[in-house]
# Entry
Amino acid sequence: MVICTAVALVHVALVFLHVAPANTVSQQYSKQINAWVYPVFEQNWRLFAPDPESVNREISARTLRTDPDGTVRVSGWFDLSGVDRAATEHNPFPSHTTQNMLRRAWSSYLETLGGDDQPRSERAVMVQRYLRNIAVDRVTAHRGGSFDSIQLRVITLPVSPPDQAGSSRPSGTAAPRPVETRYLPWWKVAPHGTD
# Structure
């Protein structure tokens, strides 16, 4: 009981220092505070000043396995974003994790690694592993089996404006065309999926 209370108090203090205006304590211990907060407990003000997405991203994954005889097997693409949509579509109380984990992992990846997929900081390496581990966990949960590497594909689609009646796409128009399709490099996977 004492340990749980102590951890809770430390957690509240660290998150408070993270969201509070810059001060001597938060500046002096910024490395420790950020190590605790990112990526799981990250706080931001988007709830109060939302920046709505102008694009939709469809994130898919495929796996690679090398058999003992040397045969290389590459799976088909598995729609990770579709798993999230299915989990929230008819759920009256979808969890924050279900709605945002993959999307926030991708936006953090873009912020820290940019367009060349080369991590240049410890945080970038951590975010890359975090995104990979989410993909590995979801593919393993829905497909099973073992694999040696995983690759992600991100298709970016523009958000189409609603028509007069409020539907998301005017009748008779085609689905929006991809703005960009990005293939991430193959990432090695530890025997149990993550490291």
Q: What stands out?
A: Helices lie at 2-19, 24-28, 30-37, 80-89, 96-113, 122-143.
